[in-house]
Design brief:
CATH superfamily of the largest domain: FAD/NAD(P)-binding domain
Bound molecules: flavin-adenine dinucleotide
CATH class of the largest domain: Alpha Beta
Radius of gyration: 24 Å
Distance between the termini: 54 Å
Strand order of the largest sheet: 1-2-3-4-5
Number of helices: 14
CATH topology of the largest domain: FAD/NAD(P)-binding domain
Shape: globular
Structural class: alpha/beta
Helix content: 25-40%
Strand content: 25-35%
Largest sheet: 5 strands, mixed, barrel
């Protein structure tokens, strides 16, 4: 399978989740593979994203649970005041990062992937330049090149970052200190997860959202219910429709808030720290994309569903891009899935990705998850294709397991085609919502109908019965 006229069959630029899965999959299929990484093996997810943030959420979630005297009283449990050590919680996250990074590096080595530590760039068709950490610069050839350079935090103009009093998630995952009062700019999933961590550990939070409602990227009904517990029920002062026009680091940090519409000054806040969680930008600046005439969309690489990079809408032969740098559903499992799709196509097995069936989760306590279409997009599809949209709600308060856990705050909304029964999307807020969504994601992937899904038997008593109830209600509502 290997082609000796090139240095490598495949060169992958970037060893995040996307690059890692692509390189491993290619090597396991007999290809000669190199992966170039300029920073830490494992990329954002392992070092500055999913892994450390979930470790912090696991520890702080336990602190919250043990400190919730009212909840424990419901079980007849009385606990002593909770004590925790910030440094030990941070150590837990750091150790997990180190061990996952080591395992991932070893598994690439075992698969026979050549790891090159340096910065990669395009040098023309089937050519990659690399400036290695030791300063050596060389050009390598490859039959196929996969760009998997990921993303970095976006910091809006007017905000100064010092990494100590004003920082992004890159620094927040280290939990170096616990500010008494912290402002979180942005109420997307990263802002919400850190608000969960900080409030559990006793910090006061002000959440600032420029759009006109908090949690603007979530289903409006789910957001309304979730915000009652995750924001209003905690030590969080949430403001929407206001823009943090300037933020100056220091003690205190000064935040100038203006009205989003009129840009009139609203207030100047003085807080101990600020976490800027305003989205992410693609890392594509230094790739020398001009060498192949590639035009980006605000830095995101245009691709088709087979992962070919496009120029003027046409695929460039032997050049692929996967992960956050493509701007599609910027999640670790999307990057990994795109990586294997790219390699399958390189191997000659034509395959396309199905974004609709990729789930997303926010690991707050309780969690929020979704898959498929938003209600607005499903309505549009129904109008375009001339079918009636069905929507049913299944509540955690009717679920025995949720009631036994005294965690019955939750809702699942299921969207489906009322004629064919096809599942179009689901949005869940409630205990273990991140696990529950997988079942619906599988149904979306197979374009299954609620008619057959409603007959599938679910274990009793489990939270999965929330999904079963939704399927049954939907099947009942189908056009005869
Ligand atoms: C706080 C936080 C929490 C998150 N939680 C979750 C979660 O729970 N679940 C989930 O699915 N996703 C989560 N994500 C998103 C997830 O981390 C990203 O979607 C994922 O890391 C994208 O993978 P990637 O391979 O595209 O890019 P990255 O992980 O960003 O990796 C790209 C790599 O390329 C390297 N690189 C860049 N340019 C070059 C170059 N020119 N040469 C060589 N190397 C280069 C970078 O150093 C980096 O290591 C989270 C993100 C954050 C910030």
């Amino acid at each position: 399978m290997s082609d000796a006229s090139f240095d490598f069959d495949v060169i992958v630029i970037g060893a995040g989740y996307g690059g890692f899965d692509a390189a491993k999959h290619a090597a396991e299929h007999g290809l000669k593979v190199a992966i170039i990484e300029s920073r830490d093996m494992g990329g954002t997810c392992v070092n500055r994203g999913c892994v450390p943030s979930k470790a912090l959420l696991a520890a702080s979630g336990r602190v919250r649970e043990l400190a919730d005297a009212d909840h424990l009283k419901g079980f007849g449990i009385h606990s002593a005041p909770v004590r925790f050590e910030r440094q030990k919680i941070a150590d837990h996250a750091n150790q997990l990062v180190a061990s996952i990074r080591t395992n991932l590096t070893k598994s690439l080595q075992r698969a026979g992937v050549t790891i090159i530590r340096g910065t990669g760039r395009l040098e023309g068709t089937q050519k990659v330049g690399v400036r290695e950490i030791n300063g050596v610069d060389r050009v390598l050839s490859a039959r196929d090149v996969i760009i998997a350079t990921g993303s970095d935090p976006f910091v809006p103009p007017g905000i100064e970052i010092d990494g100590r009093s004003v920082f992004t998630s890159d620094e927040a995952v280290n939990l170096e200190w616990l500010p008494r009062w912290i402002a979180i700019i942005g109420s997307g999933y990263i802002g919400l997860e850190f608000a969960d961590v900080y409030t559990a550990l006793g910090c006061e939070v002000t959440m600032i959202e420029a759009l006109d409602r908090v949690m603007p990227t979530f289903d409006p009904d789910i957001a309304k219910l979730a915000a009652r517990k995750l924001i209003d029920g905690r030590d969080i002062d949430a403001r929407s429709g206001v823009l943090a026009q300037s933020i100056k680091p220091g003690a205190p940090v000064q935040i100038e808030l203006v009205d989003m519409q009129t840009r009139e000054p609203v207030e100047t806040l003085e807080v101990d720290a600020v976490l800027v969680a305003t989205g992410r930008v693609p890392s594509s600046k230094n790739l020398n994309l001009e060498a192949l005439g590639i035009e980006t969309n605000r830095g995101f690489l245009p691709i088709d569903d087979s992962m070919h990079v496009l120029v003027d809408g046409q695929p460039i032969p032997h050049l692929w891009a996967v992960g956050d740098v493509t701007g599609k559903l910027m999640l670790a499992h999307t990057a990994a899935a795109q990586g294997t799709v790219a390699v399958d196509n390189i191997l000659g097995h034509h395959r396309q990705i199905d974004y609709r069936s990729i789930p997303a989760a926010t690991f707050t306590h309780p969690e929020i998850s979704s898959v498929g279409l938003s209600e607005a997009d499903a309505k549009q599809l129904a109008t375009d294709q001339g079918f009636e949209l069905g929507a049913v709600r299944s509540y955690f308060k009717a679920n025995s397991k949720a009631l036994a856990e005294l965690e019955s705050d939750g809702l699942m909304k299921l969207l489906f085609n009322k004629t064919s029964g096809e599942v179009l999307g689901a949005h869940i807020y409630g205990l273990h919502a991140a696990d529950l969504i997988q079942e619906v994601a599988n149904a979306v992937a197979r374009r299954q109908s609620v008619r057959e899904l409603a007959t599938e038997v679910h274990t009793h008593p489990t939270l999965s019965e929330v999904v079963e109830v939704a399927y049954k209600q939907a099947a009942h509502a189908l056009a005869a």
